[in-house]
Automatic annotation (TrEMBL):
Keywords: Hydrolase, Protease, Serine protease. It comes from Nonomuraea montanisoli. Residues 8-365 form the Peptidase S9A N-terminal domain. Pfam families: Peptidase_S9, Peptidase_S9_N. GO terms for molecular function: oligopeptidase activity; serine-type endopeptidase activity. GO terms for cellular component: cytosol. This is S9 family peptidase. It comes from the Bacteria. The keyword Transferase does not apply. Residues 469-676 form the Peptidase S9 prolyl oligopeptidase catalytic domain.
């Protein structure tokens, strides 16, 4: 297998990082030259041929399509008594936006995006935001999979695209797109101020029929952080929430005062205060003084809003982990985690708990990846419309009206796996129990097992339906979803236990889960695989370089793999300084080198590896996967293949076109089927 790899030359390049000299023999693979593109294409051709060898590619693709039928739907947005939603036929024409009187009603088309795509792929609608009066629709359109998107405006009555939209490029949808002024005359939005690779952002205010100007929000000079402006119809207050993973309302403005300026609100807060403007108060979930979360109210005109002593506690900390609030009519719906499973309680506008909403099972509510994005709710609807799934049943859409006992099913789950969900826990080296879920069908042990994990950025891994993982189970595999420290499943302490200088704890947790599965006989090391994306891809890289004997296969997706090289990328420099360490400190640089997979590669025997990346990924650029693959291919002393496929027109995942994502999932699954020797391809039963 080694002889078939495209040759990768080495170069005498060294990086000086805070006085630490770091060799970088494959630096040339960071460039986007014709030499690199040809090398990348040959790697992709090799990977596809190797992955599908001895298999029926169409059967694998059919299984992916069957499981994709249960993909998480795009929930509608509410404004002025109507519901707006994106309709994207899988593999079909460009998406359209429809407006209807019911959340999933047929309605009529108000935005037809035919002809807006590039490279033969339809565009992706990154976000959707109707004006409070329902007359103008704003949406973000991405055409290359990168998540970079531009604002389009449509007249709802005629469906005509309006001119005069801002020309700035939005880096992603993480700040929610646009935030409309309560009177629908304009909106705020966070956008890039230069080239996307420079990663400089600021908040702008755009007036319909007028210009676009920077909004002078006091968030700190030179901050690269994400900021979302929150405004609510009928309210005179605007709040600027800052930080994508642990939002804090840093500034407030009285919109009723024409000359009023932004003033500091909750500043200098290291924790999370994520909420909404409700009357004259900001009602929020916070982990300040409560690692598992509590609900507090902060007066918007408080003299010292940053002092927690002046906050009113509405819901005290309990045994569950409080995650987010959603305004619904005159109520607030409080989302919680009960041992990772979703729970929803209902509060009135005073903050009093009035009841609990029954859920269709033990699973997860659909939620944005980051808490900041969840604050972009727009105009509150009278009903709570939500998506829900379990690890064994796909996404359904439901509606709950305050006061009713049961939610109404608007769209039932399309796929139910012939599998059961089990709970387990492994003991980490420091004695902490690390929970995991097992999704398995018929068959005994030892089984072919895939561990899926993340454990980073205060992001919770949810017990939800994921089409690619469901396809693995349908093909005869056993899925283990591990809840490692660093994630947001169990509150602030769980997150900080594997943050920055304690990042290594996440990797120890993963090894503990893997060894526990081996010790209990669920699987053997020649039938155990690992996958993860982004920071989870880095987790995969550490696992396969430090403990290669544990795994039969490792599959990093859209991975971060070179922490030192990442500091040369403005976006990753921002991320690494937040979550990993200070690259200006030589001791910190040496610590980062011990956690950076590209630098950890030494000659040895490695498991089978399938690296998957996107050519337009702005977060973990494809050169991470290219450099790591080249170094690993040269270092491999075993027989297992080291495969790399960088997909064109693919990004970090959120804005990748459906047909490209399906091709990625099919190849990923085929690699697992062939490497683990799964019994075959069988489609899940439709409901």
């Amino acid at each position: 297998m080694t002889a078939a790899y495209p040759p990768a030359r080495t170069v005498e390049v060294f990086e000086d990082v805070a006085g630490v000299r770091v060799p970088d023999p494959y630096r040339w693979l960071e460039e986007e030259t014709e030499e690199v593109r040809q090398w990348q294409r040959r790697q992709a051709e090799l990977a596809t041929a190797a992955v599908y060898a001895g298999q029926d590619p169409e059967a694998v693709r059919a299984l992916i399509r069957a499981c994709d039928a249960g993909s998480r739907p795009a929930l509608p947005k509410y404004a002025a008594g109507r519901w707006f939603r994106v309709v994207s036929p899988p593999g079909g024409p460009a998406p359209v936006v429809v407006v209807a009187d019911e959340p999933l009603g047929a309605g009529r088309t108000v935005a037809d995006l035919a002809g807006s795509g590039e490279g033969g792929h339809p565009p992706v609608v990154s976000w959707l935001a109707p004006a409070p009066d329902g007359r103008v629709l704003a949406l973000g359109l991405c055409t290359d999979g990168s998540e970079h998107n531009t604002i389009r405006l449509f007249d709802v009555a005629s469906g005509r695209q309006l001119g005069g939209a801002p020309e700035q490029v939005l880096h992603s949808a993480w700040a929610g797109g646009v935030s409309w002024l309560p009177d629908s005359t304009g909106f705020s939005f966070l956008a890039l101020t230069g080239a996307p690779e420079d990663f400089r952002q600021t908040v702008f205010l755009h007036r319909l029929g007028g210009g676009t100007e920077p909004e002078p929000i006091p968030v700190g000079a030179g901050s690269r952080e994400y900021t979302l402006v929150q405004m609510s119809p009928g309210s005179r207050w605007a709040v600027a929430a800052h930080r994508v993973g642990s939002p804090v309302p840093v500034a407030v403005r009285d919109l009723s005062d024409p000359g009023g300026a932004w003033r500091p609100f909750v500043s200098g807060c290291p924790g999370t205060v994520a909420g909404h403007v409700v009357g004259e108060r900001y009602i929020a979930v916070t982990d300040v003084g409560a690692p598992r979360g509590r609900v507090v109210a902060i007066p918007l005109d408080a003299a010292d809003p940053g002092d927690p002593a002046g906050w009113s506690e509405l819901v005290p900390e309990g045994d569950t982990v409080l995650r987010s609030l959603t305004p619904v009519g005159e109520h607030l719906y409080l989302s919680e985690f009960d041992r990772t499973f979703a729970r929803v309680r209902i509060l009135d506008r005073s903050g009093a708990v009035t009841g609990e909403m029954p859920l269709p099972g033990r699973g997860a509510l659909a939620a944005p990846f980051f808490p900041l994005t969840a604050l972009a709710t727009g105009a509150p609807a009278a009903d709570f419309v939500f998506a829900f799934s379990t690890p064994t049943s796909s996404w359904g859409v439901y509606r709950h009206r305050p006061g009713e006992t049961e939610p109404e099913t608007l769209l039932p789950p399309a796929v139910v796996l012939d599998a059961v969900l089990e709970e387990g826990a492994a003991l980490a080296p420091d004695g902490v129990a690390v929970p995991y879920h097992v999704v398995r069908g018929a068959g005994g042990a030892p089984a072919s097992v895939l561990i899926s994990a993340y454990g980073a950025a205060n992001v919770p891994l949810l017990p939800q339906y994921q089409p690619d993982l469901a396809a693995f189970v349908a093909a005869g595999g056993v899925l283990v979803q591990a809840y490692l420290r660093g994630g947001g499943e169990f509150g602030r302490d769980w997150h900080l236990a594997a943050h920055r200088e304690r990042k290594h704890v996440r990797d120890a947790d993963l090894v503990a889960v893997a060894e526990h599965l081996l010790d209990t006989g669920l699987t053997t090391s020649d039938r155990l695989a690992l996958t993860g994306g982004s920071d989870g891809g880095l987790m995969c890289g550490i696992a396969l370089t430090r403990r290669p004997e544990l795994w039969r296969a490792v599959l990093p997706r859209a991975p971060l793999l070179d922490l030192v090289g990442g500091t040369r990328d403005p976006y990753l420099d921002f991320v690494i300084r937040k979550a990993w360490g200070d690259p200006d400190d030589p001791d910190e640089v040496r610590r980062l080198l011990g956690l950076s997979p590209y630098q950890l590669v030494e000659p040895g025997v490695f498991p089978a590896v399938y690296l998957q990346a996107g050519a337009t990924d702005p977060r973990c650029r494809p050169w991470h996967a290219r450099k790591f693959a080249a170094r690993l291919q040269a270092a491999q002393r075993g027989e297992a293949p080291i495969l790399l496929h960088v997909f064109e027109d693919a990004g970090h995942g959120a804005a990748t076109a459906h047909d490209v994502a399906a091709a990625q999932d099919a190849e990923w699954l085929a690699f697992l089927i062939g490497t683990l020797g799964l019994p075959g391809v069988s489609r899940p039963e439709p409901t």
